[in-house]
Amino acid sequence: MSMLKHFIISLCAVVAFAACEVIPEGERSEPVVVGETRRVVLLEEFTGVRCTNCPSAARIAHDLLAEYPDNLVVVGMHGTNTGTYGEPFEGEQDFRISEVNEYFLAVGGTPTQGYPCGMVNRAVSDNAIDPDGILLNYDVWATEVVRALLVPPVADLYIERVDDASLPDSVVKVAVSVESLEAIDHQVSLVVELVEDGIIGSQVDDGVTNPNYEHNHVLRTVVNGTWGESVTMPEVGQTSTPREFEITIRDPWVKDNCSVVAYIYNSETRGDVMQAAILPLGEASTH
């Protein structure tokens, strides 16, 4: 895991355009020290190619990944219920998937909710857009990531590549296992996803369409269903038998740019992500 890290990030003013969420200029945050930890935090960002302020949020996520490369997983989620935010440009890829709609609605998202917004471990926060909510404006992502990193993990999660000569090159097999670090008194579910980095395409950025924008952390598919599958946690200090998953890399996805993401969460709340993990499939991944 990472050595002691000092996190300093300044919040910048962004320009209003269309209906995207605009964050006013804020004050520089105080430096925060995060020690070595096994905690891996999940940052999910709701975004769209026509959302003018979404690149500002993506840059914050990028900076956070640079600061905490071993302790943060970022997933960029493009949904179909976002009005014009997510409509693809003519002749370009459509990043939208239906599972994102379910996640958005489950955490209180509405058709009038401005983008960008996100979730850190799908946890309720006093910094949320709505009181006791989960959705966060991007000016507080850094605060919430640090807060989550300071909480000791109750479980750990491992993803390993499985070699299988019988599979075509377009199919990747992985094994996911869970280790209990503390006793857990609620039901747990496991979700496995595929994200892709390095996709060049159009993006509205500060009111201007950039045809050569690099889209990263794009959620391509949820491998085992929107809400995943139930897992039985092993005894404290033990690791579960690995579960294997086969993932088809569809055209035009680039396998070397893809990563497998896994996370476990509290099934009873459909939130409270306990631990996340990521396995890059090639050297081109930004994770």
Brief digest:
The protein has helices at residues 54-67, 98-106, 141-149, and strands at 5-7, 32-34, 41-46, 72-77, 117-120, 155-162, 171-180, 188-196, 199-205, 208-215, 218-222, 229-231, 243-248, 258-266, 271-280.
CATH superfamily: Immunoglobulins
The end-to-end distance, rounded to whole angstroms, is: 14 Å
Main sheet: strands, sense, barrel:
5 strands, antiparallel
Shape category: globular
* Structural category: mainly beta
Helix content: 10-25%
Strand-residue proportion: 25-35%
- By DSSP (H or I, 4+ residues per run), the number of helices equals 3
Q: What is the CATH third-level topology name?
A: Immunoglobulin-like
Order of helices and strands: EEEHEHEHEEEEEEEEEE
Q: Summarize model confidence as the mean pLDDT.
A: 88
Q: What is the CA-atom radius of gyration, in angstroms?
A: 18 Å
Q: How many domain units? A: 1
What would CATH call the class?
Mainly Beta
- Number of E-state strands: 15
Are there runs of 5+ residues with pLDDT below 50, and where?
1-19, 21-31
* Annotated CATH architecture: Sandwich
Question: How does this model look, in words?
Answer:
The chain has 287 residues and is mainly beta. It has one domain (38-280): Immunoglobulins (Immunoglobulin-like), CATH 2.60.40. It has 3 helices and 15 strands. It has helices at residues 54-67, 98-106, 141-149; strands at 5-7, 32-34, 41-46, 72-77, 117-120, 155-162, 171-180, 188-196, 199-205, 208-215, 218-222, 229-231, 243-248, 258-266, 271-280. The radius of gyration is 18 Å and the shape is globular. It starts with a strand and ends in a 7-residue tail after the last strand.
